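FORM 7B: Structural annotation worksheet

SECTION A. Query
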Amino acid sequence: MKKSTAIYWLKRDFRLLDNPALTAALKENEEVVPVFIMEPSFVAAPETSAFHIHAVTDALKGFRKKIQKTGGDVVVIMDEVIPTLTTLLQKYPFQKIYAHEEIGIERTFARDRMVRAWCKQHKIAFKEYQQTGVFRRMGSRNNRHAIWKDFYTTPFLPVPENLEKCTVPAKWKSLKLNKRQILTPKLVNCELTTTQKKQVQPVSETDAEKTLQSFLFERALGYSKAISSPLTAFTKGSRLSVHLAWGTITGRTVYQKTWKRIEKLKEMKLAGDPGAGKFSSSLRAFSSRLHWRDHFTQRLETEPNMEFQALNPAYRHLDYDNNPRFLDAWINGKTGYPMVDACIRCLQDTGFVNFRMRAMLTSFACHTLKINWKLIDHPMARLYTDYEPGIHLSQLQMQAGVVGINTVRVYSPTKQIADQDPDTIFIKQWVPELRAFSPEEILGHRDEILGDYPAQLVDWKISSSEMRQRIYAIRRTENYRAIAEKVYQKHGSRRMTPKKKGTKKRNVKKTETK
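SECTION B. Predicted structure
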């Protein structure tokens, strides 16, 4: 009998721990060939940046090193997926492809549809496995939390014991590429700058484990408050978003290890440890965000078209000014608003800024500069090393105010300085033109230049008020409530009310907030 040979197709899942697709492939086949395909369409995509290429190649390098320790290897090919599979099948027949479900944009969705069609044509079994708390073909949102909890409390999978099955057929070895070949000069914007290399977060399963460990045992204290400031979020935040985005760790693993630590802290509190209670509270706040992460990603899975239009049909013709000069100033961090510009420039060098600042950037672009959220989609995606399409698009629309089932939040960049960077330490780090000026002068900056720093592009209060009027004019239309209710039923979060004596629990609408 011929050997049963399968391909494990690596996408956003560069890990051995809690890897359902690889575990199943090794269990069900005599020979498994890990294959990573660096698609030129991914590299050249308008949302892709050097940060993403760095994350992929870094994560791939770490995964490959672990496989090589067992005597195996990973086939790395630069081409589109269908031509690659055709070439591999011709050189060394295989019977199955194992992969994880990817919650992506139309480009990856179309690719996966083509792979299914190709497999059907060539009588290849294509098996996809869930790796997040996002569910395909999910009906009502009413019971989603229970399903999510079941998934997250199911014990995560150990590292497979039979990794020696991961081999590379001799006929395929000539197809392998190294990192240098992947970053071919023919493909633009693939290399990080010298400055970026010094500051960007490393991405690998080993780094994910170290990051989680340091957070659970050292950095998490004061998490809830610290993540609001762009200064403290770099160290007090979990910094796991990049690892969750590229699959060097799973949310389920993080959730279970977090709660294991919480249970230990309970024991420590009972034993008299004065700091255990506060540490536990921080970790509880963090664990809830894992649920919210999947909640927002579920929106893209449920409605893929949100990449191109607002979830709420009422806002699909919302009027924007779309001044190209304003868009260019926003993208390059030259708006005359210190906190906005500091955050953009920080992202340009590090690929990271905290959630509140990302919300402010979106709000400022859409509400103050009156730029359509679609025009900042790709520029913002390129700035995030932890770019996750479902999170990105959901938050983009939510902060732009076009989902319509939550409060419209218009962030004041000046208030964010007063609240999150009152001594202007963060601003002076990233906007060197302002280092000679006092915090009071920076806070008071309005319509005149400060040295080499420009005046504000627009008056925040006047411009934001005009945009809010446009949004609320739509909210006052006759059939708006009915439209918003449909959006809520399809995409809104659910929270169970506390059970009162003699009553049943019921679902109530929860207003989503930042």
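SECTION C. Observations
The radius of gyration is 24 Å. The mean pLDDT is 91.

SECTION D. Sign-off
Analyst initials: ____
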